[in-house]
Design goal:
mainly beta, Jelly Rolls, seven-stranded antiparallel sheet, globular
Amino acid sequence: MKIFILKICLACGFSFVIAGVQANICLEHGFREITRKTGNPTTWGTLFSAWGKKNLTSYVVGETGNTVLRVHFPAGTYDPGSMIAQGLPVGGTGFAILFDGSAATCATLTYRLRFSNDFDFVRGGKLPGLAGGVAHTYPRLPRGINGYTARLMWRELGAGEIYAYLRTTPRPTNYYGTSIGRGSFHFSKGEWHTVTESIRLNDPTMADGVMHLTLDGKLVIDQNSLLIRDREDVFSDGFIFESFFGGNDVTWATPKAAFIEFTAFEYRGYAK
């Protein structure tokens, strides 16, 4: 793990250091920042493939002015595609944001989240993550030649992972994503967590892509040698805000109404 020391000089004439901060994998490899978005992602641009709007509410925290997005999951809901196929109301919400014209080949996404106090993790569910190109999931699965996605996911008892669709994700019979770092960290109920996902795309001719994830400032996933794309025109040009229980059968369903709150989003795109 690469560590750097951040030195902060204050106007009063003394300084202190913060040690153990994970280096930015984009800046440390000579990338320059070309896109930055902060705050409420629903205001960042055109929302694609939006669903579950009625399950998304928000409020503003007075002391900070930050907008908190609350995603609601009615009892008995799971994978939205499966619910729609049965003519049933969906739980959770989702949309994709793409930054037109962005040629980022390295990107970071930071946000805070909190599971409700009585949240039942059941078998798992999806959380926001970076994406590029065709930033959609089933039935338009990204395959590296047209895009990639790298949503986060919670599993039983709050275990976490990156749940990705990459160039190497099996096709065409397997519609499941690739689990990266499953169980390397855990979410807790009722507590605010800060996650930062960082992805450096591979050279299209090499498996040298990198994915990092930090939870509350600690590096919990450090995955190298990834084949994320095989075309130069696939970029890290957006992200997917998606959250729902599932899994595509009733064993993933939430047994009771629940919610997750999200705030303090920051996306940064980098290029050379």
